[in-house]
Amino acid sequence: MIRVKKIGAAPGSLIHLGEKRVDQARLSLIAYGPDGVDEEASLAWEDCSARLDRRPVSWINLTGLHNVELIARIGADLGIHPLDLEDILNTGHRPKMAVGAGYTLLILKMLTFNAETLEMGQEQVSFLQLQNAVISFQEKEGDVFGALRDRIRAGSGRLRQRGTDYLLYALADSVVDSYLATLSDVSSVLAGLEEDFPQSDDREFARKLHSLRRCLSIVRSATWPLREVLDVWMDDENPIVAKESQPFLSDLRDHVLLSLDMVERLRSELTTLHELHLAEIGARTNEVMQVLTVMASLFIPLTFIVGIYGMNFENMPELKWTWGYPAVWLVMLATVVGLLLFFKRKKWF
User: What is the distance between the alpha carbons of residues 147 and 128, in angstroms, rounded to a whole number?
Assistant: First the structure.
């Protein structure tokens, strides 16, 4: 469903557009640097903002976009433009990146694929990158950042040595990598459909094809705008992105393009399988029509013969013949046998 802002509302009006997926909004904080990590959950915004300067980098996660007052207070304290806050609250917004005064806004879609029901769930996640913090806004509990949190806690790699620009890259990379995993799952389901194709039920098979087509459309709508996002992100004039992060953004672009290639390839395979399915249905229909045509062709001459001798004329000598009835049967049987031999010779059955 496409969500739009309330008609007549002023630009920058803070209205939550979407479902309420959690009962209560919750804030959590992970603050880290080369020398350690501080992690706290279920904090008030005042507590989070007071802890922003304790470590070089802070990651604040807000779960629950329905709390408009809390998001408005965060935006007011950090100087976020109302139009950007409006985009965060609109869960149907297209993926985008916007550079504001002292911050960068990134909006992405997190996807979850159910291989049993063939449904693709999506959730909007937004990120505000500041000089010393990244704030993520999620609709509900559960995300694709578990491995990233473990890396922060373990202190492995370069994550604890870098700034907020690298953290934002790592978050976006986790989302894009989840696209590749999702597309791999879709590919596995599609391969199974190809194997079961000859023996599958027509209606169920068509339903699965339609479901997979919808899933790929959702992935494409989440991935396609990321090319524009990366054009903005990799701009040399972006003040919050360090030059050392540019190679990683190039790698992220490669992953996005790989996702798009996989989407197009899977859509092409779906189209081919759909055409084969229609061709198979057409072939079976032709076989049925062929059998019916042969049967009709056999009975047409028999009906003609029966129709002639069913006429009530007095001067029909054959009706008074002693062997007239068996002779008619013999003619009809010979006609049927002759037609069957003719059809067999023509390889019509």
Answer: 21
